[in-house]
Amino acid sequence: MGGFHSVPNDQRYRELAEKTGFSLEQIGNLHHRFKQLSHNGNTLRRDDFSKIPDLACNPIRFEIIEAFFDKRNFNAHGEGSVEEIGFEEFITIMSYFRPPSLHMSEEQREKLRRVKLRFLFNMHDTDNDGTITLQEYRHVVEELLSRSGALGRETAKGIADAAMLEVASISMGHMEPDEFYEGITFEHFLKILKGIEIESKMHIRFLNVDTTILCK
Amino acid sequence: MRNFGCLAQAIVIYLFVCCVCKSNGEIASGHDTPATPLLPEPVDNVEQAYPEDEKTNLPVFTMDYPRIQLPFEITLWILLACFAKIGFHVYHKITIWIPESCLLITIGLIVGGIMHAVKEDPPAVLESNVFFLYMLPPIVLENGYFMPTRPFFENAGTVLWYAVVGSLWNSIGIGLSLYAICQIEAFGVLDINLQENLLFASIISAVDPVAVINVFQDISVNEQLFIVIFGEGLFNDAVTVVLYNMFVFVADMEVVESVDVFLGVARFFVVGLGGVLFGFLFGIAAAFTSRFTSNVREIEPLFVLMYSYLAYLVAELFAISSIMAIVLCALTMRYYVEANVAQRSCTTIRHVIKMLATISETLIFFFLGVVTVTTEHEWNWGYILGTLIFAFIWRGLGILVLTQIINPFRTVPFTYQDQFGMAYGGLRGAICFALVFLLPDTIVRRKLFVTASIAIIIFTVFIQGISIRPLIEYLINIRRTHKQETISVEIHKRLMEHTVAGIEDICGQWSHHYWKDKFKRFNDKVFRRILLRDNRAESSIVALYKRMELLNAMELLDTHNADISAAPSIVSLHDEKKASYKPKKKFLASDLKNMHDILSKNMYKIRQRTAEYTSKHALPDNSRTKEILIRRHSSIRRSLRPGSFREPARSHKYLSLPPGESLDAHFPLISHGDTRPQADHPFARTRLVQSMRSTPTRPTRRLGTLQEIPLGESSMARATAVDFLHERASGRLSSASSSYSRSPFRAAVAPGASRPAPVPTPRGRPTSTSSSSARRKDPDWETEEEVEVEVDLEEQEGQHRP
Question: Can you provide one Gene Ontology molecular function annotated for this UniProt record (chain B) (predicted)?
């Protein structure tokens, strides 16, 4: 957890490398970036993230920032959120975006998919009840569309509703008149996103070169 | 069978006509001579126009074939090829296993055989000028226009890598191997020198986009693989052109110096980048022009076609890569043009491009078959077999090596199966054939080259084309995609992109998402301002949503088979479902409730439909939007009296009305004076409801359910008509929740009575008085559709804008 000194600790790095799968150089680079963001401190807070200029243009920045502080992303059974995170959590979140390696078996790929989709799911499911309700969905869609011109909230709501309907019909098929659809569970979520190649959409190529000099 | 008969008839008719016309030419010349024995015979033997000394009677029936010969024959050939296409689809299963190109070549072979027997010459379709100036541009335009831009730009590096370096590798490899073969005396081809070998190799190494797409269209391989194969086919033209010109030039020279090689490289850059530049410029010009065409809608499609063709021709003028020019032109202008032009023009453009491309492609493959039989061949076992084997080997090796090099740079590396797909899918096609015909006659063994190229085309198209599908389906486990176009998927894709972009910003490591974002911002600031007529950003999610809503509405209208204002049509819809239905003249509340159940259940199914518009043989369904407007308009007219168009008659409403309570309780029959004749009609009621909301939009403005859903959810409050239009906070919601029992999003609201997150604050849903706010609310969406709606209304009905 906490105590990282400014001098990189090799042993610590190696442990992290094993845990998250990054290479040592990548961890070093990310550590530099961590230091840059936290102004040489040991922990990051939400305001530190808000200071990144490019991030300000991102429509879903709040969700992204929130994801860093969400305990569910640290381990599978966490709940709630924290106020500040250390380097280990930072790296853990980053590791969700590692690309799949060439030599992965099918189950490993599947597992990676689930992990990444779980991350995405947690981003939606703000109240942590295991389902994405219509409200939450609407919120996300509104934010997403907030950048694309002056669309009304009604539009976003309509779209979210339509999307919800689609999910309902895909997951539940034909519904009886008395049934209602609680919300999207993780299994349904997986089902609707079955066609997307998550591997190609949700990863970052982590470089081995230190680019913190170029960052602001 | 009938269509085969048709085909046979067509062939017979054509040949008959040809023979008749040939003989008619002689008869015509013979006819005049006895008629005018005293006058000197005129040079052309068409009928006489002047009276002579000897009296001739006015010819009652004459025939003048040579005059119409050219267009007539062209038309007949096109018709023949199209009959063939119809014929293939008679037995549907054929086209699944045998790609159309093979079938067309086969038919061409047959017809070529017939013509050869009759000693006719085939029309010179595959002659270089005709081919490169008339046959090829439509196909390339279509490929460029319908290329999926997003995956393409994400994989641009890979595509160019394979196109450029791959072609070079193949050409040089095959050329050298063939030269080695030539050295072997036993084959008897000693007189082909190195330059000629290289020249030939450069011709046949290029993968042909036409053939590839024809084969791959039905096999849904994963997106990455598809875009790489597709892009490679299109862009290796640049390299082929350069190599071809270079080797033609060099083939005459005795000694090749290093300067020439260097010049060749320089020339390659000129060709490639020049093509890109020209295409881009013409694309921007086209987009800019389309901004001002709002008054000349009829010729809007013409601009697109003319600019693209111009780009192609200008590139040909400078001998730079015309294919790249036209592809870039189409890519650049597509987005802006489609945003600027009317819906109808957009459909026309797409339709025309697809039509021209299909004709071209059909003719090309057809004539490939014909010409195979009718040209003179020179067969040489060693050389030709060598060509086939080496082409195969070098392609496989090339893909392997190139992929190894580029995989580390790719975020999604290519597996071995993908590589096999790429190597095996490298079909050659008609471009190579046309290039071979273009060879100068100074090359001694020209006929051998022609034969060899035909051999390799036929081999790859038939053997590889037919076998690739079973291989991919059963043996090789390439990742396939099942394209689904639903709104949720689109939303999530977008979310992922933003997430990744955000994370990239956070960790300070940029890849193409960053550049894509930057480009998007630049695009918004600069290009959209200049090139778009009304410059509002529209998310692709919204566009998709609109499109799907339109399709849904069309589906529902279609099932009625009549206009929706007629009560019996609801009955017929109802009858199709098995739900309980009491046939009654007057609609009771319970019936309406049932109907709503059924309609909403229908809606679930309908929403799942995908709208395919990138399939090769399917046209985009944008035309239906117009029909919706027309239909709805006419149905409105019939049920309402004229003059009431101020009221929004959103017959589309019923789609999303949550079938909660009965209609009666919530939409009380407020007589709105003069304009509602059919009061016991649910749709009239619906319109009544609309009028109460009194958003004074024109009738067909809102083509989606965007505003209906809030109506639906807020309507559940059992309040007065006016009241229910407002959304209140949670108090209202709890009563709203109970009636959500049928709608899927009930639970979202049910536990929400005490939710901290509020309902999106009421936008002051307009009452009859405060109507203007509604209009302001969705101005963007409204105006975007205004354009088309306007046109439609004004042209169709001559209505004024409310």
Answer: antiporter activity
